[in-house]
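Protocol step 4 of 6: structure prediction from sequence.
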Amino acid sequence: MSTAGTIDRPMTHDPKKQAPMKAPTSEPTGFATPDFTTNGVTRSRQNRTREMQLIPEALARAHMHERLREAEQERPALRLIAARRMQRRAERASLRARRALAMAVMQ
């Protein structure tokens, strides 16, 4: 697929790998009066860059990775709890079998 990505459907979802936004070339230049500076316009334009628009998505992705990492850390503990539960169950079954054998021998 050789089409360029858009803001809604970027080619990559990693903001660091995306090309920075280019300044629009369709705007006329050199028409500002001497007492009018374009610093405020540049600052407001910088607030609308692709990186700024993708920040919520990047935060959501980081949050999801953090939850996945926490789940991975919990898995060994859950396995240990299940193993202890099965061990207790096996010990009770062993005691029942020993009692049944003792009862059979005594009769």
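Step 5 (inspection) to follow. The chain has two helices and no strands.
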